[in-house]
Amino acid sequence: MLITGIMSKPVYVPLAPDTGGRYHVLVGHGVGGEPLLRLIAALEAAGSTRASRRLLYVTSTEAPAEAEGAVRAADVASATVYPDSAALLADFRDLLEGSLMGMRLYVAGPEAFMGLVMGLAGQFNLNRDEIRAEECGSRARRVHCIHCRAATEEVVTNIVACCGCGRWLIVRDHYSRRYAAYMGVMVDAEVPGELPEIRDVFV
Fold first, then answer.
1. Got the DSSP string for the chain?
2. pTM of the predicted model as reported, rounded to 2 decimal places
3. What Å distances lie between residue 142 and 16, 103, 152, 177, 194, CA to CA?
4. pLDDT at res. 43
5. What is the CATH architecture assignment of 23-135?
6. CA 71 → CA 62, 124, 203, distances in Å?
7. Of the candidates 116, 119, 188, 189, which has an alpha carbon nearest to the alpha carbon of residue 153?
């Protein structure tokens, strides 16, 4: 029942500098720190100044033990390490509220995290040409229930119980940028309680 090849499914590429930007905001989660550090070196080589770069990063058990130290020591104007995504997103919103024309956003980490960051950036009118994203780390999905509109986090199986209404949902490949999530549709609507095999798919 999973449908692949749907055009709404995001495609990510390795991060590369956008030399047309006046200043650069780098946002990462866990193993996303490595591509961001690689990008900082590339930005420096391309002529961007240290003062033009800011780094926001969420720690994760997936990342190597030395990742946090490397991020804190990064060659940027400021590097802030957060204990969770909620704290980072709150500061990121404040940053966007004070941002100027010419900002370029680079995001690296699990797709569920990147979707939240890019969704917030879209609220402040950053367009796709101003955002670069590289997926790495967990493939777990954020699933939006089309019935009650709740979002279930860290989904790794093809079927999941909605955290809001409790319905059993099939996790579709259809991705909504608006909700920063994949769509979940009730799987046993015709025969309640009759479920396909539940399998680990997004690991």
1. ------TTS---------TT-SEEEEEEEGGGHHHHHHHHHHHHHTT--GGGEEEEEE--TTS-TTHHHHHHTSSSSEEEEESSHHHHHHHHHHHHHT--TTEEEEEEE-HHHHHHHHHHHHHTT--GGGEEEEE-S---EEEEETTT--EEEEE-BSEEE-TTT--EEEEEEEEETTTTEEEEEES-SSSTT--PPP-B---
2. 0.85
3. 26, 27, 6, 12, 24
4. 95
5. 3-Layer(aba) Sandwich (3.40)
6. 15, 26, 26
7. 116
Tokens representing 102? Answer: 């010419």
pLDDT, averaged across the chain:
91
Question: Residue 1: what pLDDT?
Answer: 45
Neighbours of 9 (CB within 10 A): 14
Give the residue ranges of the chain where pLDDT is below 70: 1-7
**Rounded Cα gap, residues 201 and 158, in angstroms:** 6
Domain ranges of the chain: 23-135, 141-186
Task: Report the candidate in 163, 203, 196 with the shortest Cα–Cα distance to residue 184.
Answer: 163
C-alpha to C-alpha distance for 32 and 171, rounded to whole angstroms? 25
As a whole number of angstroms, the distance between CA 71 and CA 36 comes to 9
65, two tokens: 């033990």
pLDDT score for 5: 54
Tell me the angle at which helices 85-97 and 111-123 cross, rounded to the nearest 10 degrees: 20
